[in-house]
UniProtKB/TrEMBL annotation:
InterPro entries: HTH_67. NCBIfam families: SCO6745_fam_HTH. This is SalK.
Amino acid sequence: MWAHFEPVHAVTYLHPRARAAYEAVGLRGYWRGYFAGRAAPLGAVEAAPVIAVFFNFAPPMVARALPAVWRLASPPEALRARLTGAVQALAELTYELPETHLAEAADLLVRAASAVQAAGRVLGAVNAALPVGEYPLAQLWQAATTLREHRGDGHVAALVAAGLDPVETLAWRVASDGTSPQYLLGRGWSEEQWHAAHERLVRRGWLTGDGTATEQGRAEFQAVEDATDRAAAHPWQALGQKDSDRLRELLEPIARSCHAALPPESPIGLPALPG
């Protein structure tokens, strides 16, 4: 299910219409829109809580963005911009689909999102508390975002429980699945921090000296992914198998359209759709 709703959410970071909506309220540059849009449900926060809940950004990078972005756009303005841009992007990408298709998908996704468990999940909780939206595309995007952040909160908890820090987590991703090192460096970590994280993963037995992922590392990180899946399962259990299957069917063309329109090399990685 994550592979089907994550591309719907991701238009807010990567689609030109979403970028234009952020720029229209004064948030020029990719990272200003990213930090303001994603943090806005928290209110006009300082850097510290965002460093904690976003997890994988170097603290100095977050501190450069926050609280400075709130002088450019208030949290309510950022929230309006992110929803406006996301809806405009989805309207462009789904114009060939019948309204009944989008309405049914939105209804089922909202039902799933309404079942998220807020305790211990900060970003999931603050997004779940936002208005659902008046129209199907707004409902669809907001529900996808709530589910995405709910899953992300659980993933961060699993990483912390496994004893992984942010730069180690990114270094592992680069080593294990071939993600460009720019994915790591784009989050503000230095070359020295990269190498130090690599050495820690070598000592842990997850990487060989030349940076190759070991079977031990893959097995132990799979435990993190399994814990993430378990923590994210409740909305789908609440929705039920039949409706979850129907929702996956409805989301398939929407997710593929979003996936095709977003750049393959981007600061956030999109999961591959089945097939």
